[in-house]
Amino acid sequence: MATIGILLTAGPFQFENWETAVDIGEAALARGHGVKYFLYLDGVYNPIEHQTFPDLESMPKDRVQALVAKGAQVIACGVCVNARGLQKGKDYIEGVQVGGLPDFAEIVSEVDQLVTL
Amino acid sequence: MAQKHVLVTMNHAPYGSIYYTEGLRAVVGVTSGIDEHTVDVLYLGDGAYYALKGVDRRDSLKYLGTLEKLGARLKVERESLQRLQLSESELAEDIEVISRDQALDLIRRADVTIDF
Fold this sequence. Notes:
The complex is a heterodimer of chains A (117) and B (116).
Chain A: E1 3-8, H1 17-30, E2 34-39, H2 60-69, E3 73-77, H3 78-83, E4 97-99, H4 101-110, E5 113-116
Parallel strand pairs in A: 1-2, 1-5, 2-3, 3-4
Helix pairs in contact in A: 1-2
Chain B: E1 5-10, H1 19-30, E2 38-43, H2 61-69, E3 74-77, H3 78-83, E4 95-98, H4 100-109, E5 112-115
Parallel strand pairs in B: 1-2, 1-5, 2-3, 3-4
């Protein structure tokens, strides 16, 4: 089985990159592959626990949570997190880690394919 | 774990968004892990504007300095320059112009490609 890396730089509620990233991750996990996400730039907004939006049935954070529960690794760039006032990810859903670019370098080491979204 | 060769394509112009500077920060970050991945940086599309002389590099100078120490070359695709009607005589000295075929070869040879 393969390991897929996803670099997500877009935030929720403006672009659909997050949804594509989640769809790819779900499909890969369903086929037994490993999935590792690195959230960079506005991508770090996706796993915030207190998201609400009236017209969406499920929030980005709910789908990220489901991925984590199925074994996906999700690491957010700490510089990006703190730059956006997210205070070391204190309002993140459970299971999302805050790290740094050396973690991304490690993901690059480990994956068979990397997708940038 | 293994060292990989990473091609980073810069597709955004060096103004109007943070992609350019933050992309270079990520490039340097990619080289910082225990495996010390090697990188090439290729300017494509609107990213080719960065190759011009006189572009304000203050935000990116430290990242470019690190890449230079690592031996990474900055490359721009000739076809991107042509599409933007930019002349090779207008380019900064540290930029290498390559053809689209050479760009495709870089992509083929890279273990991982990242675009910003």
